[in-house]
Target: Diacylglycerol kinase family protein
Amino acid sequence: MALDDKQLEGAPKDYNKKVQRNSSFFRALKNSLHGIWMILVRERNLRIHIFLGFLILIAGLHYGLVRSDWLWVTVAVFTVISSEFLNTIIEALVDLVVEKRYHPLAGLAKDVAAGGVLAAVAFEIIILLIVFQPYVWRQFGIVTNFSQFIHNFSR
Ligand SMILES: Nc1ncnc2c1ncn2[C@@H]1O[C@H](COP(=O)(O)OP(=O)(O)OP(=O)(O)O)[C@@H](O)[C@H]1O
Model:
């Protein structure tokens, strides 16, 4: 991943460059936006999650979700997006430390980071199922009671 990027492969030549603190709020903002642009360009999975986020937004508008539903859906979508950011940071740091050498700990760090994304996606799916299922059933004229269903299930 990270080391395939030609622009970043050239980075070691810049070792003598000094790193400066962000001198102003706008400079910090510009660097943050650059970070978002970099991950958007490089990480296909993040682009897929953002695309799915737009589809969820359209579905939410279609079904007319209530405020509390929107809160949960927003938390779920941003949890996945944040986990992709974290995954990319860990991959970049691991590649920086081990370069292209094999190390079991490097593999462990990357696999655990990827597992974190999977856990976040599982969280998102559970939230989406709980939030959307009454709206979908209602479309077919079926009124459900989720709490009653869970209660009956546990008996
Ligand atoms: N330096 C390394 N040493 C040992 N195993 C590694 C190393 N780099 C990668 N791996 C293993 O190869 C897998 C794929 O690594 P890679 O850097 O391509 O991440 P990726 O999962 O493809 O990234 P992306 O999230 O961008 O798809 C890792 O999950 C890890 O198991």
Remarks:
- The radius of gyration is 21 Å.
- The chain has a mean pLDDT of 90.
